[in-house]
TrEMBL record:
Source species of the chain: Gorilla gorilla gorilla
Residue ranges constituting the Lon proteolytic domain according to the UniProt record: 607-793
Gene: LONP2
Superkingdom as given in the UniProt entry: Eukaryota
Enzyme Commission number(s) from the entry: 3.4.21.-
Protein name: Lon protease homolog 2, peroxisomal
Lineage of producing organism: Eukaryota, Metazoa, Chordata, Craniata, Vertebrata
PROSITE patterns: LON_N, LON_PROTEOLYTIC, LON_SER
Gene Ontology CC entries for this record: peroxisomal matrix
Protein function: ATP-dependent serine protease that mediates the selective degradation of misfolded and unassembled polypeptides in the peroxisomal matrix. Necessary for type 2 peroxisome targeting signal (PTS2)-containing protein processing and facilitates peroxisome matrix protein import. May indirectly regulate peroxisomal fatty acid beta-oxidation through degradation of the self-processed forms of TYSND1.
Amino acid sequence: MSSVSPIQIPSRLPLLLTHEGVLLPGSTMRTSVDSARNLQLVRSRLLKGTSLQSTILGVIPNTPDPASDAQDLPPLHRIGTAALAVQVVGSNWPKPHYTLLITGLCRFQIVQVLKEKPYPIAEVEQLDRLEEFPNTCKMREELGELSEQFYKYAVQILDAVSLEERFKMTIPLLVRQIEGLKLLQKTRKPKQDDDKRVIAIRPVRRITHISGTLEDEDEDEDNDDIVMLEKKIRTSSMPEQAHKVCVKEIKRLKKMPQSMPEYALTRNYLELMVELPWNKSTTDRLDIRAARILLDNDHYAMEKLKKRVLEYLAVRQLKNNLKGPILCFVGPPGVGKTSVGRSVAKTLGREFHRIALGGVCDQSDIRGHRRTYVGSMPGRIINGLKTVGVNNPVFLLDEVDKLGKSLQGDPAAALLEVLDPEQNHNFTDHYLNVAFDLSQVLFIATANTTATIPAALLDRMEIIQVPGYTQEEKIEIAHRHLIPKQLEQHGLTPQQIQIPQVTTLDIITRYTREAGVRSLDRKLGAICRAVAVKVAEGQHKEAKLDRSDVTEREGCREHILEDEKPESISDTTDLALPPEMPILIDFHALKDILGPPMYEMEVSQRLSQPGVAIGLAWTPLGGEIMFVEASRMDGEGQLTLTGQLGDVMKESAHLAISWLRSNAKKYQLTNAFGSFDLLDNTDIHLHFPAGAVTKDGPSAGVTIVTCLASLFSGRLVRSDVAMTGEITLRGLVLPVGGIKDKVLAAHRAGLKQVIIPRRNEKDLEGIPGNVRQDLSFVTASCLDEVLNAAFDGGFTVKTRPGLLNSKL
């Protein structure tokens, strides 16, 4: 026996109820305090107390009962352990709680509970003394660390006050633990030599205690994969810098356990490095004549675009190491920008890969994620190269004008390096962290407008405008490409359906109003579906008719009564009349299939009274005609603008009314009261129909002036005239953009004359010849010329405007 002095605990102890284990004398454990009683105990006794006695607690094992009321004190175990609180750690997340480090001193028995709230206090009786068996302290500590399956044994050991009884309970547990350790040692011994031989490349082995066998098969397979990966790295043709990085990473991988998250990340990185086409490329087909034929067969019109592609092929034929140009096709939807990119790849004999950039707002999508966390991946550029397997594909960057920006960076700025021929030969993806040569990649970007593309990015690209199609071009495209495609998709043949060109023109003018051909394609698909129903019904009727002929040959019709013959004959007639082939689609068939026309020629009806003019607007969807309406009423000289107008268009309206007020005497324009001050006791309301569509830009200036001049003069604007142009306060007409799209919109609407700024006359060269023949153009440098062209007989007033206006 040791000479250790006996420990005497207080006769009254606060009780700490714990469900995390059983504390034995001489052992140490951490327990979490989160219940109301235990929290109050810690705050009152441990945090405020200063004496040694205040840090001694009575620890009682407790199993929580979900059915019991949390306010009531649960049944207490009779035997507990007096413990010394060594450490108290508090936290407020996610809710207030404490963590106690406590050391068991000795056993005690509860005599009676003296107090239940705010925390229980009991009168206790000490059962043993620590100095009686100091050699068993280490055993108690080890037993306190047993798993939950020995919880009941630990409680029984706690209840055993006699030393002899305690040994009887603990010795069987120790024997069982020793047998488990011996069995574990036997399973490890046969593989000990193998582990020594492959320790350099094999991760730590995992042992399955359930079956007693090693799970080596997956590890052996991984080992073989690593050997194959190392061989691929040695035989790859990657640059020297990339090869050094791969060698370094494979050495790290050999020493890394499979359980580490970085193991899978490093292995994926090495596999990507091996799969990238560092020096693998395709050979370009440089036959200019064949390329021209292929482009003409795939795409009708688009001469400017096809000319630029052929120029690239010609230079590529003369110089093999030509860097890929950065082309950007800008035009409305449905004009074939994406399909042209695919045709370019087909012409060159290169692989094609499309990258959709619409809505991308993270620069990591372009440059990849850094390999600092699990789940990182390369950017879309490197991933696309891995997909196509060559280093000189055609990359189509679709919808580059719809890139976003967020807290994760600006992807448009990340594209600056990709789309710069002077920099992309040394493009570094964050995931790879080594340079990759993109100079042989042919990048083609598409956009609906250049207004939303950053200036720095726009400067790196060669802009090629792809305007909308004329009606004649749409008819050719429909009969060359769209109708054959729809017939094939719906299982029809030209012997079953015929769509004349005049019907196609009706579809274009009355059922679609667009710059491209997507709506036209959908309308043709609807026609083919309707015809497919008729063809299928006709085949069913023919089958029924064949069966009826068989019945007739058997003599069944001889038994038909006389009064039933007419009905039977009509039934036979219905069966004998399948739809005649081919089914011809005319205007009546269009109305039955597509419904009433969506767009009627409403121009002359809209301009049947003064104060209305037709303008031309450009949108990302192509050119559109735009009506401007004006009205006046008695008031205080206010100008009201409606129709979702932008600030620039509102300023154009104020410019127009100011110019007219300053020139009212010149044109003899007066208000309803005969005053040359057009706003004297008069309010003006300008409205731009299609109010749900936002409108902005300076090109409506001449249209607003013409509309207001018509209102105050009482004269009608010509119903076949449309106009566009920016104005100044001095009456000058300035040039605007989108002339070709605007002219095509006027042609689609059936107008005959277009007024444009004189400085835009050069833009008429890009207008197709048939459109120029159908339209007459007036170029104006000042508003006087615009007004003279917009009104029949010029803008001269022969009668008093006030008298004429009073009759309106």
